[in-house]
Design brief:
- It is a single chain.
- It is built from 16 helices and 10 strands.
- By secondary structure, it is α/β, with parallel strands linked by helices.
- Strands 3-4-5 form a 3-stranded parallel sheet.
- It is elongated and about 85 Å long.
Length: 374
């Protein structure tokens, strides 16, 4: 989808009849269709073509010869059984960037396991460090391991395309959920590897910076972080607690981490005295970062979100008006935009076979009769 936003022509190859499983991940569904709004969220700027992989191998080969990149997310070895693995396709399309997205990679004892975001988050430690203090592990509200793997894949694909300019050769990129999750542990992983420090759940608190958490207010929560003494001092001035800065227990971040419970108890009591709106006025223009915990409705009503036009309106091919969260990155002159609504199943089969592969109408109809395409 990210590549499509940047202008790539993306062909989404789906199984006939049922298509991508995400089409059925509802309710809710797009009105008048059998497609879920979940599918809507990640499939813009793609064209759908239905091909039976067991019978349509030659069509995939032809598309590979005319394409720059192939992305697949099958269990390792599955596509090779159809003659569509990297080794097979690279023989007919040596220029192709072939990107495999898997749960655990192509080697190791877990390589043949199917991979899902929440499983990778479990095995990779994210759920161990997510959740309330002394409470059960929690998954993150969206599939961040899936998303991060896609972002790693996007960067790898762009790098491989750039490298191909110099080498004239394609290559095989392998990204997997577990490796992405472990790489995303960042400082938590470093703490264990270099200091043998096992991680614990902190709720919204930060292990190494105090204060840095979501504080309960009169009507919600306000998240505040102070990464320097100057920011901490300003926070105290704005909260009229300047006397705390004279206390040696809170003189620097090291001291504040050591005495976190005493400091946070005082700050929490003070935050509860005012509403999110009150604190937003008090903190306006501050050097330290702050922000209320918004509901999803409040997110999309936020004046800054509206100003930056993150939400875009478009017409789905069913005729329904739909809303899409647009690309988050802007360029000074490059294209990064929503051009096509998420496709209906097999919507572009005829177009792709005609315009890209040069098939005649008769050939397309014959392929449909024997159910190789739809």
């Amino acid at each position: 989808m990210i590549l499509g936003d940047l202008g790539a022509e993306v062909l989404k190859i789906e199984r006939p009849v049922s298509g991508d499983e995400a089409r059925h991940w509802g309710p809710p569904f797009i009105k008048g269709t059998q497609d879920s709004v979940y599918f809507l969220s990640v499939n813009r700027n793609k064209k759908s073509i239905c091909i039976d992989l067991q019978q349509g191998k030659d069509i995939i080969y032809e598309l590979a010869m005319k394409s720059d990149v192939l992305v697949e997310n099958y269990v390792p070895g599955k596509l090779s059984k159809f003659g569509l693995g990297y080794k097979e396709i690279s023989k007919v399309a040596p220029h192709l960037i072939y990107c495999s997205l898997t749960g655990y990679g192509y080697e190791g004892p877990y390589s043949n396991r199917p991979g899902y975001d929440v499983i990778a988050a479990s095995v990779g430690g994210l759920m161990h460090i997510t959740g309330p203090k002394d409470g059960p592990p929690c998954k993150v509200g969206v599939a961040v391991t899936d998303l991060a793997t896609g972002l790693y894949a996007h960067g790898a694909i762009m790098a491989a395309l750039y490298q191909r300019i110099k080498t004239n050769s394609g290559q095989w990129i392998q990204c997997n959920l577990l490796a992405t999750q472990i790489a995303s542990l960042i400082n938590i992983g470093s703490n264990y590897l270099n200091a043998n420090k096992e991680a614990v759940r902190w709720g919204s608190e930060h292990e190494s910076i105090v204060p840095y958490e979501a504080f309960p207010t009169k009507d919600g929560y306000m998240t505040v972080g102070t990464g320097s003494n100057a920011q901490f001092l300003e926070l105290l001035k704005r909260m009229q607690l300047i006397e705390l800065f004279e206390n040696d227990k809170f003189k620097d971040n090291t001291a504040r981490v050591k005495n976190r419970d005493e400091l946070l108890d005082m700050l929490r009591r003070e935050f509860k005295k005012k509403s999110n709106e009150d604190w937003s006025v008090i903190f306006d223009g501050a050097s330290f970062p702050y922000g209320p915990i918004n509901t999803i409705g409040q997110v999309f009503e936020d004046p800054h979100v509206k100003h930056t036009k993150m939400v875009q309106n478009m017409e789905h091919f069913s005729g329904e008006k739909v809303k899409i969260v647009g690309p988050p990155v802007t360029y000074s002159y490059a294209t990064n935009e929503v051009r096509l609504a998420p496709p209906m199943l097999g919507q572009h089969t005829d177009e792709i076979l005609k315009n890209i592969l040069g098939y005649s109408n008769d050939k397309i109809q014959n392929l449909k009769k024997v159910k190789i395409v739809q």
